[in-house]
Amino acid sequence: MADIVRVEGLSKSYKGGFQALKHVDLTIREGEILALLGPNGAGKTTLISCICGITSISAGRVLVAGHDNVTEYRAARSLIGLVPQEINLEPFETVMATVRYSRGLFGKKDNDAYIDEVLRQLSLYDKRDTQVRALSGGMKRRVLIAKALSHEPQILFLDEPTAGVDVSLRKEMWQTVAELQKRGVTIILTTHYIEEAEAMADRIGIISDGQIRLVREKQALMHELGRKVLRIELAQPLTEVPAGLDTYELSLAKDGAELVYTYDVQSDGTGITRLLTALAERGVKVRDIRTEQSSLEDIFVDLVEAEGQA
């Protein structure tokens, strides 16, 4: 899969010396969904703004389909659609007029058939003659996406696309993004919702303190950094972890009715068989066992905590 965006040594500093981005290197593959995760102030929005050419860069460069986004700004920007965090729409304009206007800003010829297609895809077609002020928050977010798609970009940036949207609308938005990917649109999203990245992304990038800490295939990341938990339901509750099991990462849960064993999926052996044998030797009777894979949220929290302790 070819790279459609290349970020090389990108830095951004502001007056006063604050460095929002520090030598960021990032490649974005054509047709993928890349999720950028990071705490508030990590640099997610600044990075998107620099790639889109909205914010000037202090060092490094950005290539969009081979076009330098500074020296070939128009060519690079024409390939990009941006959905910002803030809902900033003209309240008295209709949905159709709003999207048409955005298309005109990029010098595109009128094409109401294409705009109608976009509105249908976003479930906005029945609202095309409705003033923006009459729409719900979720519908306004869809209008922002329609505006971003109005000039037929190859790349779509979504900055916190479901912020303030209820759970049902959020899931509808995920479906919309999946459909856009099927059409060949490359999508980069920032989000605070871990489940959003887990549900949609092909790759996960984690950014903190203005630096990209890692970029991995989602499944590979969960396998590489994830842990599994074995929950051992006991026939009789315990008041403490049995003696002689210090080599295992064990804890008690549910008022002593459950032993929790955490192990590394990358280790040569899980140690489960040895643990169960050791429990039997100590007269601990097991009623049931089940395993749980750590979620992306667990991995993200662990990485951020490790970064804070470094």
Which CATH-level-2 architecture of the largest domain?
A: 3-Layer(aba) Sandwich
Q: Over all CA atoms, what is the radius of gyration?
A: 24 Å
Largest beta sheet: strand ordering: 6-7-8-3-9-10
Q: Unreliable stretches, pLDDT < 50, 5 or more residues?
A: none
Overall residue-averaged pLDDT value? 88
**What overall form do the CA principal axes indicate?**
elongated
Distance between the termini: 35 Å
InterPro entries: AAA+_ATPase, ABC_transporter-like_ATP-bd, ABC_transporter-like_CS, ABC_transporter_ATP-binding, P-loop_NTPase
Protein name: ABC transporter ATP-binding protein
Organism: Palleronia caenipelagi
GO molecular function: ATP binding; ATP hydrolysis activity
In short:
The chain has 310 residues and is α/β, with parallel strands linked by helices. It contains ten helices and 14 strands. It has three domains: 3-79 and 154-223, P-loop containing nucleotide triphosphate hydrolases (Rossmann fold); 92-147, no CATH class; 227-293, Alpha-Beta Plaits, CATH 3.30.70.
